[in-house]
Design brief:
Strand content: over 45%
Number of helices: 0
């Protein structure tokens, strides 16, 4: 059974930091590209960051220099370190996996991040 389980969300003040983690199981993690998406209230889901199976990374312009995506293939986890958080980062964050041939993909259930004073 495939599972992507996000953790680490919550309430943080502007300027603060959070670290999201996604624990994967049920598929060969090292063969998948991993991403974080987010969806704010009333908005469409957007891509935040991607790390390829070989470790290459890409970021949305809105989070560059503030967020860092990383993966640990030994632990089947992908992380998102979020620094200098802003109120506009408030959203449900989703973990996403796609196979290297783009044939198969999986979503986590999401975790809420709220940035507010």
């Amino acid at each position: 059974q495939v599972q992507l389980v996000e953790s680490g969300g919550g309430l943080v003040q502007p300027g603060g930091s959070l670290r999201l983690s996604c624990a994967a199981s049920g598929f060969t993690f090292s063969r998948y590209h991993m991403s974080w998406y987010r969806q704010a209230p009333g908005e469409e889901r957007e891509l935040v960051a991607t790390i390829t199976r070989l470790g290459g990374t890409n970021y949305a312009d809105s989070v560059k220099e503030r967020f860092t995506i990383s993966r640990d293939n030994a632990k089947n986890t992908v992380n998102l370190q979020m620094n200098n958080l802003k109120p506009e980062d408030t959203a449900v964050y989703y973990c996403y996996a796609i196979s290297s041939n783009y044939a198969t993909n999986y979503w986590g259930k999401g975790i809420l991040v709220t940035v507010s004073s």
